[in-house]
Amino acid sequence: xxxxxxxxxxxxxxxxxxxxxxxxxxxxxxxxxxxxxxxxxxxxxxxxxxxxxxxxxxxxxxxxxxxxxxxxxxxxxxxxxxxxxxxxxxxxxxxxxxxxxxxxxxxxxxxxxxxxxxxxxxxxxxxxxxxxxxxxxxxxxxxxxxxxxxxxxxxxxxxxxxxxxxxxxxxxxxxxxxxxxxxxxxxxxxxxxxxxxxxxxxxxxxxxxxxxxxxxxxxxxxxxxxxxxxxxxxxxxxxxxxxxxxxxxxxxxxxxxxxxxxxxxxxxxxxxxxxxxxxxxxxxxxxxxxxxxxxxxxxxxxxxxxxxxxxxxxxxxxxxxxxxxxxxxxxxxxxxxxxxxxxxxxxxxxxxxxxxxxxxxxxxxxxxxxxxxxxxxxxxxxxxxxxxxxxxxxxxxxxxxxxxxxxxxxxxxxxxxxx
Amino acid sequence: xxxxxxxxxxxxxxxxxxxxxxxxxxxxxxxxxxxxxxxxxxxxxxxxxxxxxxxxxxxxxxxxxxxxxxxxxxxxxxxxxxxxxxxxxxxxxxxxxxxxxxxxxxxxxxxxxxxxxxxxxxxxxxxxxxxxxxxxxxxxxxxxxxxxxxxxxxxxxxxxxxxxxxxxxxxxxxxxxxxxxxxxxxxxxxxxxxxxxxxxxxxxxxxxxxxxxxxxxxxxxxxxxxxxxxxxxxxxxxxxxxxxxxxxxxxxxxxxxxxxxxxxxxxxxxxxxxxxxxxxxxxxxxxxxxxxxxxxxxxxxxxxxxxxxxxxxxxxxxxxxxxxxxxxxxxxxxxxxxxxxxxxxxxxxxxxxxxxxxxxxxxxxxxxxxxxxxxxxxxxxxxxxxxxxxxxxxxxxxxxxxxxxxxxxxxxxxxxxxx
Lengths: 419, 419
Prior knowledge:
2 copies of one chain form a homodimer.
Chain A: H1 2-24, H2 27-43, H3 45-61, H4 66-72, H5 76-91, E1 99-104, E2 110-117, E3 120-124, H6 130-141, E4 145-149, H7 155-172, E5 179-181, H8 187-194, E6 202-205, H9 209-218, E7 231-235, H10 241-253, E8 262-268, H11 269-285, E9 289-292, H12 294-299, E10 304-305, H13 308-312, E11 319-325, H14 328-338, E12 343-347, H15 351-360, E13 365-370, H16 377-380, E14 387-389, E15 397-399, E16 405-416
Parallel strand pairs in A: 3-4, 3-6, 4-5, 7-8, 7-12, 8-11, 9-10, 9-11, 12-13
Antiparallel strand pairs in A: 1-2, 2-16, 14-15
């Protein structure tokens, strides 16, 4: 522990010095890094793919799950998308230096609230090596130094990526410590990192709920958390049922492993009989397992009875929990009880019902007549995102460049004193 | 511990239900509460003063420090100011429901980022009973339920205040659990409260650095922290020295016990000889003790030699640390090393130097040609403040109504799905 603390202090001190420099880097210099990083990744594609192939081979030998191996794998197409992503981040506006608001106070004092970088980020993630590049790029453009703690299984891929990201830093005169990979042979390093509140301003863990809770419990610095997406679609009495069917199918089946997939369906009793048998039969033909309340099971006999645990679950799979509710009030209560504060949607053509749902549901995103899958940084116009926050602080929902910033006040006087 | 957890869960559940209701309360209802609370406090002044007199008598018997007893004491004038403060908060714009930004995305999806309350606040404070009223009023206007954990020494005053605040809730039809006082006979209750992350969204401790660090280390929820204000005034080579003298005197002497008082003076070597003897002599006649670097001690012999601990200290007293620096770079390095990220000021007429100081100093507020004492919510136009945050998240600097809010996204579609 002692040993790791001093290693972390060394990294942290270097990162903090780099952050001071990055905070002052202008947009041209940061964009030049994005350009050079893309060029270097493109030129190094062959070596990257072979380093990755070695990681994949090891993972296969170690018997890792096929889904994990798929996430680990780089292909020429994935590499091209990654490199293209750098240009997309280059095209985004630089948030740093933006004057968020300002005023001239009585007496003539000028107040400006100005956007500044956070400082040093610690990014903890798992097997996907592409995330290394995305996270580094978002950090550089937002003027933050970053410590990248990737998964052991991707260590060769990440080391190879790091040589290119670091070379691009040198190309444009940014400090080497702006992007550091912190790989650890044991969990003690992670613990030491999480205790380094003096050096690290914000921790962003990406992974399962267990990892995130463990990080949050240990961390001495603020943590941007994404716990769970238990997302509901509520089909109101005044819903366009054909639209509801499409939103349900899209929310559940378009990419069931994502945090904004629809996990639970609530249906107003007045339309349950018309809606459920057709809509659920369609899902079933696409392999979705239905776990329903007693009314659901009666209207759609292939459904299995749902337990409370099913209503609380984030399945991340082709499973859907279903409950028939007597009214909007009951739907709101169900969402308040079981929802995870991530994404909640209503299908209704009745304006006052939509307005009430929007006001009363406490979630990062509340949607009317739209698929839960649309809760996403690129859909919302934020550009690339580093995650979706289920916290209320400091950012909520999709976290892009702006969410990697904070602000400070500039105050301009001419000898002003306090009376 | 077990016992307190269940008590806290009961309070927390009630507070959460109240928060759901408060989030939907409209401005008129919240303002009506502020009006009624003022009327009830005014009508109950006599009983309030006698409850407070009993607290003060106990504190005197217990031998509490005179400064603490002064903070504890209510007078007719202080009570009138408190009651007037409610009308000032009433006059502030309601932040809830404000559309922070919005856009129509390609494809027609409408995105709105809307300001909403945080939920349930836990406010931990010490002897000043007026804070009970301020904190409750800021919470109500921003639509948050609040748990107030005041000091034991103010328990009679706070209990009497609570009867009026609660009666005003009943007057306007807001739930009683919107404002709850949580007084504890022992520290175990505080621990249980800090573990209640399921019920409490944000903790705001107000008090000494030790209390705040203890709370932050224990808390399962985000904590809005105010650690220390070690605020510097840097007198540049291009400073108007007469202005510098006035800013120094105001920053150090106008109210030395506050977090934004000037604790440390940095002076460019080129003006040290002209500035220091006069400016420090003036402070000395006002009872300020000077702790200086060797050059300072040479130029102003009454100064005592300063240690690093003096440069790091928040004196909150008539003491000033002084260092002569060779250039702006050295001043920036000193501030980066010893500053607390609270308030930093420069005196200079040289535009590029001011611009560089504004950009490079990492603090909640950076001032040019203005007293550090001006870093304040009312000066900045935020209205009443619940504290000044030395954190970078979720709010930085003065925390008023807006800083007691978060946001959610409203997304309006017409059958939009993810492709």
